[in-house]
Design a protein that fits this description.
Elements: H1 2-24, H2 32-52, H3 60-85
Length: about 90
Amino acid sequence: MQGVKSDLFVFAGLLMLLIMTVVGSYWPLGEGLLIWSLAISSLKAYLIIRFYMNFRAGDRATKLFPYLAGVGLFILLLLVSTDFLTR
């Protein structure tokens, strides 16, 4: 029963983040809208990976690959932003 309860809480959290995304799209945030949307999508991705893809129960190699993917994505975004800022 504990697993179902935590799944429902995660699902409710994902729905709240979805509502925050839709409501935030109507706010006149300008450039802040991109940061707002990326922050919410990162939280949603974290919740899905952490709870629904069962990386909690995996071995060390299984837990290592999502973190390496996150580091790789951060490096890619860093390189793209430096290219964008130097133009």
